Amino acid sequence: MGTLMQARALPLIIALALALASCESPRPRLEPAKPAPPPVVIAPPAPPPAPVEPDRPGLTLQDYQKEIATAIVSTSSGETFQGKLPPLLRSVVVLQVSIDKQGMPDMVTLFRSNGFADLEKLAVAAVYRAAPYPIPGRSLLAGRSSLSFTESFLFRNDGRFQVRSIAEEQSTHVEPQKPAARKAAKKK
User: Fold this and answer.
1) Which domain does 147 fall in, by range?
2) How far apart are CA 153 and CA 101, in angstroms?
3) What residues of the chain score a pLDDT lower than 70?
4) What is the pLDDT of residue 32?
5) For residues 108 and 63, what is the distance between their CA atoms, to the nearest angstrom?
6) Is residue 26 in a domain?
7) What are the C-alpha distances in Å from 42 to residues 39, 45, 46, 48?
8) Can you tell me the distance from the alpha carbon of 110 to that of 121, in angstroms, rounded to the nearest whole number?
9) Model's pTM, two decimal places?
10) What pLDDT does 169 receive?
11) What is the pLDDT of residue 45?
12) Strand, coil or helix: what is 98?
């Protein structure tokens, strides 16, 4: 009897299997792909605006040169000296200096020298080292992009200098040299 039952149940099992096979199982629902968010671009910080200084009415070129000279001396304290200039200088270096409207040296060129290259380099370096300078102001620039002037560096024998715009008086007294000192000075 077991086989008869199995024989009768077989068509039922087959029909059931076919019915189940024909049914689709639910498929996962696919959603449309979302576009990727745009990459985050971090812009570099904007440069700070150029310093805006109100015009400096009444500022003369001579006054401005004194401001520049003061800045040079304050940043070159190991290379400068105080007091009266000696009656005889080792060298006078004259530079043509151009300062732009932001107070930066635009150009520094040798205008005149006694031929001491080391002192020329020292004077030029002192101008660049002291920057930035005070902004000259619209009145002094008078529509130009930079302001140019000459400045003299007055060197004594030890290689230290004063800047002419703020230099002290020059001594007029020359100490006479003894004959032995003159011979030694000539050998140098």
Assistant:
1) 61-172
2) 24
3) 1-33, 36-37, 40-41, 43, 46-54, 173-188
4) 67
5) 19
6) no
7) 9, 9, 11, 17
8) 9
9) 0.64
10) 82
11) 74
12) strand
Find the angle CA(135)-CA(113)-CA(120) to the nearest 5 degrees. Answer: 60
In a domain, 69, yes or no: yes
Structural domain includes residue 11: no
Q: What are the tokens at 159?
A: 């290689």
Q: How far apart are CA 171 and CA 88, in angstroms?
A: 9
Q: Report phi then psi at 110, rounded to 5.
A: -75, 125
Q: What is the DSSP letter of 145?
A: S
Check residue 158 and give its pLDDT: 96
Number of domains in the chain: 1
Q: Which two tokens stand for residue 135?
A: 């902004």
Neighbours of 60 (CB within 10 A): 11
Length of the chain: 188
Half-sphere exposure of 114 (CA within 13 A, CB side): 16
- Angstrom distance (rounded) from CA 163 to CA 79: 11
Rounded Cα–Cα distance for residues 166 and 152 (Å): 10
Q: In angstroms, what is the C-alpha Rg of the chain?
A: 44
Crossing angle of the two packed helices 61-75 and 117-129, in degrees rounded to 10: 100
For residues 20 and 36, what is the distance between their CA atoms, to the nearest angstrom? 41
Q: 181: which 2 tokens? A: 């000192």
- Strand extents, DSSP E, 13-83: none
Whether 97 and 105 have beta carbons less than 8 Å apart is answered as: yes
